[in-house]
Design goal:
This protein is α+β, with helices and mostly antiparallel strands and 124 residues long. The protein has one domain: Metalloproteases ("zincins"), catalytic domain (Collagenase (Catalytic Domain), 3-Layer(aba) Sandwich). It contains 5 helices and 3 strands. The chain has a 3-stranded mixed beta sheet with strand order 1-3-2, sandwiched between helices.
């Protein structure tokens, strides 16, 4: 993750990573996003909400369900490490403002950046 953070210009930034179960992420998914059931990754950005707020060294929190990651690794044939890496990168991009749910153009842009960063992740 350090190489990906450096590549994205986040040299002096911090983030929190929580690996949890489907049950744990389902609780967070419901509590904070109003969605039912588990998901693979949730990102909670800590960016300032207005320009009046100072820039924070904290990027935010990334929560990954290991249960879901294991299932996805089996389904896709990727290793668990690669699957976890992709989920962490996906969450990191959300912390930096990328969004794949708004429109196809943004989804494509995020997917391309995910692929590019996965190459860096695999080199580490």
């Amino acid at each position: 993750m350090e190489k990906a953070l450096d590549d994205l210009g986040c040299h002096d930034k911090e983030l929190s990573i929580l690996f949890t179960s489907d049950e744990g992420i389902a609780q967070l998914n419901h509590q904070y996003l109003g969605r039912q059931g588990p998901t693979n990754v949730i990102a909670f950005p800590m960016a300032p909400v207005s320009q009046d707020e100072p820039d924070s060294p904290l990027l935010g929190d990334i929560v990954v369900s290991v249960d879901t990651a294991v299932r996805e690794a089996r389904e896709t044939g990727y290793s668990l490490m690669d699957t976890l890496g992709r989920l962490l990168i996906h969450g990191l991009l959300h912390l930096l403002g990328y969004d794949h749910e708004t429109c196809d153009k943004d989804a494509k842009r995020m997917a391309q950046e995910e692929d590019r960063l996965m190459k860096i992740f695999k080199e580490a």
